[in-house]
Design brief:
Blueprint: H1 4-17, H2 28-37, H3 41-44, E1 61-63, E2 69-71, H4 73-84, H5 86-93, H6 113-127, H7 131-146, H8 162-179, H9 184-198, H10 206-210, H11 212-226, H12 230-241, H13 245-250, H14 273-277, H15 280-286, H16 289-297, H17 300-317, E3 339-340, H18 341-358, H19 361-377, E4 389-390, H20 422-426, H21 430-436, E5 439-442, E6 447-449, E7 455-461, E8 464-472, E9 479-486, E10 490-498, E11 506-509, E12 512-513, E13 521-529, E14 533-538, E15 543-547, E16 553-557, E17 560-565, E18 568-576, E19 579-586, E20 592-594, E21 606-609, E22 624-632, E23 638-639, E24 642-643, E25 658-664, E26 671-672
Parallel strand pairs: 6-10
Antiparallel strand pairs: 1-5, 2-7, 3-4, 5-6, 7-8, 8-9, 9-14, 10-13, 11-12, 11-14, 15-16, 16-17, 17-25, 17-26, 18-19, 20-22, 21-22, 22-25, 23-24
Helix pairs in contact: 4-5, 6-7, 6-8, 6-21, 8-11, 9-12, 11-12, 15-18, 16-17, 16-18, 18-19
The structure holds zinc ion (ZN).
Length: about 675
């Protein structure tokens, strides 16, 4: 406690150095948040982006090190909900990451679950500057770093699989960015040298073979910091032994819903390549394979590979929540199919990395679609329970076998570990990594607004400290206010992502209107920035109608997808330590067809905005509703808890016309998202 006043003084001095002290009165909201998170001058060095070293190709944008971008506003509240829920307590109630974890030297779970949990816990702890969570994470990290074999191998001795170590490497890179712990880089170097010697004898197999690009990211991270040429050899080994995703997607063979027979799941003999190639999480992780490898190969075809994968997944398995179906193998475009939560967070991580490498604004659009819809959609409002599989048309969450390709009957329950415990350990990375990725540095030393949510960043632009604060209720509102504050006047570009849906966006700098930016681009404002400069971006949030399976329609506004919220009856199935497993049954009818088609103008949809609460993804706290007209369609029914495939549109109905309210997708845990369209 006694050190607190000194810290405040130091922060005040630092604010002065930045030339920001005078701004406190004119910009109180931002600066009070900023003053709480001002880094010490020495840590500023760590907040500079690290660019690619020769011989790697340059990335368009570089992520800022963990801790440089911090959440504010509703996003900070969301991370605090996560910390107060399973995210900050999982080890206290789930033995797989508890005191007997193999990653603490125990005899318990010794595979992926410890590293998965840490991959979210580390960024959560450091973005919230939460000492309790940092101390939790430190135990696993200290055990890992302090028990490395003399040959370089690390992790539980009982399990020599390369795959869980790929996750732990991601943990160590984030931890190093946040702390500068001098043990990390030598430990990674020793492990990689061990792998260079071992991989020719004991190569990548199953999960590690299909997820090699995730390790490649950590090898690239280390090479950029050390320049050790041996790491280039390791990259070649990983690529040579890893699955060739780009060749598969050049002639994509998996265009229909996968069956257990097709991938020979029932034939025994271990995991088959067919099963792994059609596995949702593997595909979500692989979206970055082409972009990541393009840094090494310099190949334009590799760069384009990620966009090609997304296009194929959208065409044959795309769903309105931004996901592809995977329950847990690729499952076709029917909105009653599910998507696994691990795939949501891994797809997000792939998009964050690919957006940096490629600089394609469409990747930012997709990232927001997942972050604001699919991610919170699979989590209860308090983040104490999650689903394994979520469905866009989800009319009941109960024990049922259908419609999953290969998953079990618990798949869409909300609970501790429905179906299988991977998502229990892995979902924690979703929100924190999204927060850390909102602002980036461009190749030519500009500040990039890659995605939008309230946050602030302290970083370095060409050796000058720059602070950027983003005040907004986006995606619930269209106004984004940014304060750009360099420590000294400095010329650099500010790049603003203009989403593809955002025609008519207005941009002002210090109240002066700028030229109207084109949607689907990065608007570039190059000027000499000085402390106190303010940028206002106003995105027009006109409702839109998009078209899906059987010509069904979904209603969107900005980055949010909207659903009809079915009445919910939550029935506890059983207690699970500090949490519980739940079934959710519908209490109202849901089978509406809408008086909308894909060409409908926005006048068919009436938006009602209400206050943006600290739980904007809950039904009670939903900050916006869209009112539309529709009629019930009695022929559209559910069987065994699953909505029949949405009927082919257009449809007719003799039922009376009603006005119904649609709420954000994630706020409706039972929902219809893809509706039949009424014949006009
Ligand atoms: Zn999972």
């Amino acid at each position: 406690m006694s050190s607190r006043p000194r810290i405040c003084l130091r922060r005040r001095r630092f604010l002065k150095q930045l030339g920001l002290a005078g701004l406190v009165s004119s910009f109180p909201g931002v600066l009070s948040a900023f003053a709480n998170a001002v880094p010490s001058p020495s840590s500023l060095v760590r907040q500079a982006a690290v660019k690619n070293r020769t011989p790697f190709a340059q990335s368009k944008f570089y992520p800022l090190p963990l801790g440089a971008v911090r959440p504010a506003g509703w996003l900070q509240a969301q991370l605090k909900i996560q910390a107060a829920g399973l995210g900050g307590h999982l080890d206290e109630t789930w033995a797989d990451v508890g005191p007997n974890s193999g990653w603490l030297g125990g005899t318990g779970e010794s595979w992926e679950r410890g590293p998965y949990f840490l991959d979210g816990l580390v960024p959560l702890a450091y973005l919230l500057d939460d000492e309790r969570l940092k101390a939790k994470a430190q135990k696993y990290i200290d055990w890992t770093l302090n028990h490395q074999d003399s040959n370089g191998m690390f992790g539980p001795r009982s399990n020599d699989d390369w795959w869980p170590r790929m996750v732990m490497l991601k943990v160590l890179t984030q931890y190093h960015e946040a702390t500068g712990d001098p043990r990390v880089i030598p430990a990674m170097q020793r492990y990689f040298e061990y792998q260079i010697a071992e991989l020719p004898k004991r190569g990548l197999r199953d999960w590690g073979k299909f997820r090699w690009q995730d390790e490649a990211l950590s090898v690239i991270w280390l090479y950029n910091r050390t320049g050790n040429a041996k790491l280039l050899d390791l990259l070649q080994l990983l690529h040579a032994q890893g699955y060739d995703w780009l060749t598969e997607y050049a002639n994509f063979p998996y265009k229909e819903r996968i069956t257990a027979e097709r991938i020979k799941l029932l034939e025994g003999g271990g995991l088959k390549d067919l099963a792994l190639a059609t596995h949702g999480v593997n595909n979500g992780q692989a979206v970055k394979a082409g972009p990541v490898w393009s840094l090494v190969s310099g190949s334009e075809a590799d760069r384009r590979g990620g966009m090609r994968m997304i296009a194929e997944l959208d065409q044959y398995h795309g769903l309105p929540n931004g996901m592809f179906s995977c329950d847990e193998h690729l499952a076709g475009p029917n909105p009653s199919q599910g998507s696994e939560l691990c795939t949501v967070v891994e797809y997000m991580f792939s998009l964050e990395q690919s957006l940096g490498i490629l600089g394609d604004p469409a990747l930012g659009d997709r990232l927001e679609r997942l972050a604001f819809n699919a991610l919170p959609g699979a989590l209860t409002d308090d983040m104490w329970a999650h689903q394994y599989d979520q469905e866009p048309n989800q009319v009941e969450c109960s024990l049922h076998r259908e419609p999953w390709t290969t998953n079990g009957p618990e798949s869409n329950l909300f609970g501790l570990e429905p179906n299988f415990g991977c998502c229990t350990a892995n979902f924690h990375q979703g929100w924190p990594k999204f927060a850390a990725s909102l602002l980036m540095l461009s190749q030519d030393d500009g500040v990039v607004a890659a995605a939008y949510a309230p946050c602030e960043a302290s970083t370095m632009v060409r050796d000058t400290p720059v602070h950027v604060a983003v005040e907004t209720s986006y995606p619930f509102r269209g106004m984004v206010r940014m304060g750009v504050n360099p420590a000294a006047p400095l010329k650099f570009p500010l790049l603003l992502r203009i989403p593809a849906w955002a025609a008519g966006t207005s941009v002002k700098v210090n109240s002066e209107a700028q030229s109207v930016p084109s949607p689907g681009t990065f608007a570039r404002i190059e000027r000499t920035w000085k402390a106190g400069d303010r940028v206002e971006v106003e995105f027009p949030l006109e409702p839109r109608v998009s078209q899906w399976f059987h010509d069904s329609v979904a209603v969107e506004r900005g980055a949010l997808v909207f659903s009809y919220g079915i009445g919910e009856d939550w029935l506890k199935l059983r207690d699970r330590g500090m949490t519980a497993d739940w079934q959710v049954y519908p209490t109202t009818q849901w089978n509406y067809a809408l008086a909308l088609d894909a060409a409908s103008a926005s006048h068919d949809v009436r938006a009602v905005d209400t206050e943006v609460s600290d739980r904007p993804f809950s039904a009670k706290g939903a900050p916006v509703a869209l009112h539309v007209k529709g009629r019930k369609l009695p022929a559209w029914e559910a069987e065994n808890g699953v909505a029949d495939p949405v009927p082919q549109s257009p449809v007719t109905s003799d039922q009376p016309e009603e006005t119904i309210a649609l709420i954000p997708y994630a706020a409706a845990k039972l929902r219809i998202t893809a509706f039949p369209s009424l014949k006009t």
